[in-house]
Write a structure and sequence with these properties.
The structure holds two protein chains of two kinds. Chain A is 43% helix and 1% strand. Chain A is an all-alpha fold. Chain A folds into three domains: 15-40; 54-80 and 118-212, no CATH class; 81-114, no CATH class. The radius of gyration of chain A is 25 Å and the shape is extended. Chain A starts with 7 loop residues before the first helix and ends in a 13-residue tail after the last helix. Chain B is built from 36 helices and 42 strands. Classes of the chains: A mainly alpha, B alpha/beta. Chain A binds chain B through residues 35, 40-41, 44, 46, 71, 73-77, 79-84, 106-107, 109-117, 120, 122-124, 126, 128, 130-131, 134-135, 201-203, 207, 209-212, 214-215, and chain B through 85, 88, 90-99, 104-107, 851-854, 857, 859-864, 909-912, 922, 925-926, 928-929, 933, 936-937, 940, 942.
């Protein structure tokens, strides 16, 4: 009786197996790689409804971060400024600019400007700005050089590895509290040494157990 | 067998199955403390609850969906997930365009408010996030709350987001608008008000009272009737009968050494503010040798086994209708030395002797279900003992307005309605079509009224029968005020605009009166502007809002005297047939909380039943009539008939049955409609609280009851129990006498041999969290269960899931009976996570989702959990709960409820758990972290654990829960843990729980204890 399958089917099967196997491995690999926060989240730069330039305001004009994000020392969230804050200046400055049309409209109607959220943590993570900023962790540690960004993008991965790295060894990221909003600050000596002094002085003891961040 | 380890016990177990059987049936294994009748009989059902985390069928993956369809769903969702992953979802932020100055988004803001129920009022502090009320706590400055809130008050926050609430104005069953109603109201010619009647619940709002006075002035022939299914009418009538003047009565439970409650469940359903529990439990805290002398002695005479009965030293069960005779006999017995040999006579003699000995430190109180004469007799006895003015004080009644109240007034009103004398009936926030006694036929009478206007929170039974139905604003949506029994007024502040455009009673009254002010804020503020001292009006108003109490509103104290001649006890009701006692429901009250899933799923403090009410029968009656739990019976008298399920209630009076009101609502929301049985069908105006002469017959049908009394059983397995009975004293109690003789008696109830762990031991230095629960103070009121549910986003699961043991409460209230089935005592024990130092759950987690924090917390990382349920299997306390389904979504979806609205009640500081993960008590870790952050950021102080109050601890009306740093010798919890009463549950397992208990100390009367 003749063989049902020709001899070549052996090779075809092997090749097919290899192709499927490689395909599966590379698909899983790609999935893992592309879903990793450093890849999927960093660089996220949506277009905002108002072309607000942090580079102009925070960089060139030298506005303190705290001027607009005024709850950062008191609340878990660094407030996105309401339209009132914008209009505080823009009633006088550039009050006719067409680029500020939406801002003026919002101020009149009371409708919020629909800003797009860039820095997002999962729902089960409870990050508290107040705790970090008063401890001396600068904005730049998580948000990067916002003062150099025309349009803000996410610079750091903001994943758990990043949090833990600093919680295990906070010294390089701790600076005097009054300097946290000074994004271009360059320490005059070893930043680790400065950090260690502040940690001792303030009894800083960042948690590395689960309930430190997950509730 | 003293030093014998568990291993040895097991190794020495007889191999012979026959021997085992013999041992297990011998009387020596009868547990001293028992959870249920099934446990006493040691049925396989009970053993299943002991051995297994969940009963056999609880592992089914999906309800209504087969495994095959689940695979389909999974495949489809994977496909969608792949597509969705291509693009990062866009999230938006909407800052307030014109913000409030100093407003911090994401931070909670607290406001004072007030909660009125059944003629009582308590002050609240309501926590709001972004303008959404999410948690209710008691106002520490309010004299009726003293910082605590009842379960019902706390659960009412869920009602704000109830999607089944009344949303639109209805006219004759058709949708209408407020404008159309206002126009229609103007066309009504009310004249002198001869055809106008108002019907409301008990009015405790001074603003509404002033409107009432105005209405009765404008319409001199109009009448205002107050009727509430559960109210203080008998108490008021009793005071009037005894003293000849209207006074409000204030029992001072903390000043009394000997208390006799005549069918008064003041620790439970009969007192809807935390005040009674606060006062009563003051004397139950034992911190020193002197405190032992403070412990009061409580006697209770009642029919149904109530929470107060459970906390009593001695309890005499009798039919509700017989209490009157008992009170009269007691009153007589104070002058003589009565004798007798039966239990009642002995009890009576002992109580009389004890009361006389206590003199002015004695207190006799009567319950609101007892007729006026029993209240009057209690006043008389107190006066004879010299206790009046000492342990019971009186204030001038706050309201003396022209008002008819109670069931007789309602009877008159329905008579007028039926005979066509009423052309306009305005019902303000009441649901008489459901709550009125059956014989009044209120629904039929309402149909005869040409213009019936109903303001109600639900489109309920009354709404269906009324011409106009107006949606009522929730009390957290509307301005108002509420007065407690001692006259102190709290302003009821709204937290949110009415979500569905409802209006409050005072706003509707403003329409009827065509007042200048139409808005609730103006009405309340202008009323108080006329009451507050003119000089400091603005400040006084602001202070009232800030404090939650209007200064200077406390009623003046009076010292009335009893006129004995007026009090004539009626002869005892003829004891033919069965007495049916009606109880306020601990969960739905009079039915107004029927659509509240938190309350429906909060186990009744005594029966432990959820999602149902039942006819409670005594064990003797169940034996005689061969009734099993869940058997349907028909209770009949004349043309009255109710078919309902029965349940055996240990300790219930013989020849009487009890049923809770507030169930079997024919027209509530999707949660509450047709849950349980409508006791109102057999409630009549003459048998308003105790219906006599009923007959009961089984119908042959069965009803499935979801009872949680055996859930979380920690009793010893049969094998061990057969050799060493009672070697797991889970709850421990002793008497003062025994405790004085041997202070270590509680600790010594279980010999724990020296145990070594195979795991390396940590040292617990610095800040270490721990909890101590004083069983002596805890009354078992359920307030902590609801506080925890509200604080920690604990879901409701529904009756069918409770039957599978899947309820999710992070703190459960275990109730144990002690003593004979017919007349036991009961002990309550709250069980949160024990946060064991040697946590058995941690060792078995394959993904380290549950680990130990350096501060001794047994952390749970939800995002890590993969749902193996090993931890729950290994937890000896059975406090871990698994999300078998996406409860939040599932529960709502099955009831076709939009999850968006209900999710507004969530605490944003706690993760909402999804399906497939484990959860348990965290010691309110969000509160710990918040306290830590605020302490450390305020001037960078060292955090030593001060200022952390868990949700259960905060609300406990008995102050039975202490929490804090056990390494700080000055903390309350550390001091309590040093007491000799302190014991760890299941210490023999060497799990070293951080939550420990303080044994309960009882103060029994030696005369009665011996018998």
């Amino acid at each position: 009786m003749a063989a049902i399958f020709p001899k070549s089917s052996d090779i075809i099967l092997k090749v097919l197996g290899a192709v499927i196997g490689l395909g599966a491995v590379s698909t899983i690999g790609a999935y893992v790689y592309f879903s990793y926060p450093t890849v999927i989240d960093t660089g996220y730069q949506p277009e905002q409804p108002v072309a607000y330039s942090h580079k102009l305001h925070a960089g060139q004009l030298g506005l303190n971060c705290f001027y607009c994000h005024y709850t950062v020392y008191r609340g878990a969230y660094a407030a996105i400024p309401g339209t009132e804050i914008c209009m505080g200046c823009h009633q006088k400055v550039k009050d006719k600019s067409p680029r500020l049309e939406l801002v003026r409209q919002s101020y009149e109607t009371g409708e919020a400007i629909p800003w797009k959220k860039i820095h997002v943590l999962p729902d089960y993570v409870y990050f508290n700005h107040r705790a970090h900023v008063t401890a001396g962790v600068s904005c730049v540690s998580c948000h990067g050089r916002i003062d150099q960004m025309v349009e803000v993008h996410q610079e750091k991965p903001l994943n758990m590895a990043m949090c833990l790295e600093c919680h295990r060894d906070p010294a390089p990221n701790v600076r005097p509290a009054e300097l946290v909003t000074q994004l271009d600050w360059v320490p005059d000596r070893d930043p680790r040494e400065i950090g260690r002094e502040i940690i001792a002085q303030k009894h800083l003891n960042p948690p590395t157990n689960c309930s430190g961040c997950h509730r | 067998m003293d030093k014998m380890s568990l291993f040895q016990i097991l190794n020495n177990a007889p191999d012979e199955p026959a021997g085992l059987k013999q041992a297990s049936t011998s009387s020596s294994t009868t547990p001293e403390y028992w959870r249920s009748l099934d446990q006493l009989a040691d049925t396989p059902e009970f053993q299943q609850w002991v051995h297994r985390e969940f009963p056999d069928d609880a592992v089914a993956v999906l309800d209504g969906n087969s495994r095959r369809s689940m695979l389909k769903i999974m495949a489809a969702s994977f496909g969608l997930a792949g597509l969705a992953a291509c693009r990062r979802p866009e999230m938006r932020m909407a800052p307030q365009a014109r913000g409030r100055e100093d407003y911090i988004p994401g931070s909670p803001y607290n406001y004072t408010s007030a909660f009125a129920l059944g003629g009582h009022a308590s002050g609240l502090v309501v926590q709001t996030y972004e303008g959404r009320p999410s948690k209710i706590e008691g106002n520490p400055d309010h004299p009726s709350s003293l910082g605590a809130a009842t379960a019902l008050a706390q659960a009412s926050v869920l009602g704000v987001y109830d999607p089944d609430r009344a949303k639109v104005v209805m006219e004759g069953g058709k949708e209408s608008t407020w404008e159309e109603f206002e126009a229609a109201l103007k066309t009504l010619s009310l004249g002198d008000g001869s055809g106008l009647r108002f019907l409301s619940g008990t009015v405790v709002s001074p603003t509404l009272e002033s409107q009432r006075a105005e209405a009765l002035k404008s319409f001199p022939k109009a009448k205002w009737v107050e009727y509430e299914s559960i109210a203080r009418d008998n108490e008021r009538a009793g005071a009037l009968l005894a003293f000849g003047q209207a006074v409000d009565v204030h029992p001072q439970f903390d000043r009394a050494k000997v208390i006799l409650s005549l069918d008064f469940d003041f620790l439970g359903n009969d007192w809807p503010t935390p005040l009674a529990t606060k006062l009563f439990s003051k004397n139950r805290h034992v911190d020193s040798e002197e405190d032992l002398e403070k412990i009061s002695r409580l006697y209770v005479v009642e029919s149904q086994f109530s929470l107060t009965g459970a906390n009593a030293e001695h309890r005499l069960r009798m039919r509700g209708g017989d209490v009157q005779q008992f009170a009269a006999d007691l009153s007589a017995a104070l002058g003589t030395s009565p004798a007798g040999s039966d239990r009642r006579a002995k009890f009576l003699a002992a109580v009389a002797k004890d009361l006389k000995a206590a003199g002015k430190e004695a207190l006799v109180v009567a319950g609101p279900r007892q007729p006026a004469v029993v209240h009057a007799l209690a006043h008389q006895i107190n006066q004879t003992l010299g206790a009046a003015g000492e342990t019971i004080t009186f204030t001038k009644a706050a309201t003396t307005d022209r008002v008819e109240s109670g069931v007789d007034a309602l009877k008159t009103l329905t008579g007028e309605m039926t005979s066509g004398q009423v052309s306009t009936l305005i019902i303000l926030g009441a649901n008489p079509a459901y709550t009125a006694p059956a014989d009044l036929q209120f629904g039929a009478a309402l149909a005869k009224v040409a213009n019936s206007i109903h303001l109600g929170a639900e489109n309920d039974e009354t709404a269906a029968a009324a011409k106009w139905h107006l949606p009522e604003a929730h009390f957290l949506e509307a301005w108002g005020d509420a007065r407690s029994t001692d006259g102190v007024v709290a302003i009821q502040q709204p937290m949110i605009e009415p979500i569905f455009g409802g209006r409050s009673a005072i706003e509707v009254m403003a329409l009827v009166l065509d007042s200048k002010d139409k808005k609730g804020y103006d009405l309340v503020k202008n009323f108080w502007a006329s009451q507050l001292p003119a000089a400091s009006r603005d400040n006084a108003w602001k202070k009232a809002l800030n404090d939650g109490v209007v200064a200077g509103t406390k009623s003046a104290e009076v010292k009335p005297t009893v006129d004995s001649k007026r009090i004539q006890a009626a002869p005892a009701a003829a004891a033919s047939g069965i007495e049916v006692g009606f109880l306020p429901s601990a969960t739905t009250w009079d039915g107004r909380f029927a659509n509240n899933a938190w309350m429906q799923e909060a186990p009744d403090p005594i029966t432990k039943l959820v999602w149902d009410n039942v006819v409670l029968v005594s064990p003797a009656m169940a034996r005689e009539r061969n009734l099993k739990d869940g058997d349907m019976v028909a209770l009949t008298r004349g043309n009255l008939k109710l078919e309902a399920a029965v349940m055996t209630q240990p300790g219930h009076a013989a020849n009487a049955v009890s049923i809770a009101l507030g169930y079997g609502r024919p027209r509530s929301g999707t949660v509450g409609t047709d849950v349980g049985f409508n006791a109102g069908l057999i409630r009549t105006s003459d048998g308003f609280w105790f219906g006599q002469g009923f007959s009961m017959a089984p119908t042959g049908a069965k009803h499935i009851l979801a009872n949680t009394q055996e859930h979380g059983s920690m009793e010893e397995p049969q094998l061990v129990a057969s050799i060493k009975p009672n070697h797991r004293p889970l709850v421990r109690e002793s008497t003062i006498e025994d405790y004085k003789k041997n202070a270590r008696i509680i600790e010594q109830m279980n010999e724990v041999p020296e145990l070594d762990s195979i795991y390396p031991q940590r040292t617990w230095e610095g800040l270490q969290w721990g909890m101590a629960i004083d069983l002596g103070a805890c009354t078992g009121c359920n307030a902590c269960v609801i506080a925890c549910q509200s604080e920690n986003n604990v879901p409701s699961v529904g009756k069918d899931q409770v039957l599978r043991g899947r309820e999710m409460h992070w703190i459960r209230m275990d109730r144990y009976y002690v003593g004979p089935v017919d007349d036991p005592r009961a002990v309550e024990q709250p069980i949160p996570c024990m946060q064991c130092e040697n946590a058995p759950c941690e060792n078995v987690c394959p993904v380290q989702a549950t680990t130990h924090s350096p501060e001794g917390l047994n952390d749970m990382a939800y995002n890590r959990c993969v749902g193996t349920r090993y931890c729950a299997n290994n937890c000896p306390f059975k406090v871990r709960h698994f999300n078998f389904l996406d409860w939040h979504k599932n529960f709502l979806e099955r009831r076709r409820i939009e999850p968006e609205l209900m999710s507004m009640v969530y605490n944003p500081d706690v993760t909402v758990r999804m399906r497939g993960i484990m959860e348990k008590c965290t010691y309110c870790v969000q509160r710990i972290q918040e306290a830590r952050i605020s302490t450390k950021t305020d001037g960078r102080k060292e955090f030593t654990g001060e200022g952390v109050v868990t949700a259960c601890q905060q609300t406990c009306p008995a102050d039975a829960i202490a929490f804090g740093n056990i390494n700080d010798p000055n903390s309350k919890v550390a001091k309590l843990k040093k007491q000799e009463r302190n014991y760890a549950m299941l210490a023999e397992l060497d799990v070293r729980p951080r939550t420990t208990y303080l044994g309960r100390l009882r103060n029994p009367n030696p005369d009665l204890e011996a018998s």
